Amino acid sequence: MTVLVTGATGRAGWHVARLLQERGHQVRAAVRDVGATGPWDAAVTFSFTDPATWDAAFTGVDRMFLMRPPQIGNVKRDMLPALERARQLGVRRMVLLSLQGAEHNPVVPHHDLEKWLRRSGLEWTFVRAAFFMQNLSTTHAADIREHGRILLPAGRGRTAFVDVRDVAEVAALALDGDGHVGKAYTPTGSRPLTYQRLPT
């Protein structure tokens, strides 16, 4: 079985590729730079917005780890044509790295991806991840270091942080086995933290 991993050089994709390779699957990394090294058997130049890269990436692939690039907001225009081509070329299962609560929030791009997959006729699994714990030492590191807090539009909501390695484990299991088709999982931490509303 050959699995295409999009976002293979990112935090989640790298671990998904590693786990699949450890399980003995052929892993093809869809990357911008084929010179990047990682836990995969082959790398192919790929962009959702460049049709010239699609056939080489999708041909011979059975299953796919699907991750939305952060810079893509309009998935109907910039991702769905590529996914249609993947289906035409024989990709039959996609595991989507989605977002916690995406099924209830039509504003987030993941909502449209989930809706398309449900109607696609493909085998699908949604991994609706909670807030990555690793974001505290990367994306939000400067805010923590300089201000001692994280500013997010969260009101008085709660967030349970999750290790990206646990998210990758769920995705790899969904790609590897047959008991997860048509299901949605929300990997999350066990101790939610509460946000505080700042005075206006």
Topology:
Elements (H helix, E strand, L loop, with lengths): L1 E5 L4 H12 L3 E6 L10 E4 L8 H5 L4 E4 L8 H4 L1 H9 L4 E7 L9 H11 L3 E7 L11 H7 L10 E2 L4 H13 L6 E3 L7 E2 L6
Helix pairs in contact: 1-7
Summarize the model shown:
The chain is α/β, with parallel strands linked by helices and 200 residues long.
How much is the average pLDDT? 91
Give the DSSP E fraction (strand runs of 2 or more residues): 15-25%
Computed Rg: 17 Å
Query: Roughly what percent helix?
Result: 25-40%
For the biggest β-sheet, the strand order reads 3-2-1-4-5-6-8
Would you count the extended β strands for me? 9
Query: How far is it from the N-terminal to the C-terminal residue, by CA?
Result: 55 Å
For this entry, what is the oligomeric state of its chains? single chain
Which structural class do you get from the secondary structure elements?
alpha/beta
Distinct helical segment count:
7
Overall 3D geometry? globular
Return the string of H and E elements. Answer: EHEEHEHHEHEHEHEE
Task: Describe the protein.
This protein has seven helices and nine strands, in the order E-H-E-E-H-E-H-H-E-H-E-H-E-H-E-E. The protein has 200 residues and is an alpha/beta fold. A seven-stranded parallel beta sheet has the order 3-2-1-4-5-6-8, sandwiched between helices. Strand 1 (2-6), helix 1 and strand 2 form a beta-alpha-beta unit. The model has no long low-confidence stretch (mean pLDDT 91).
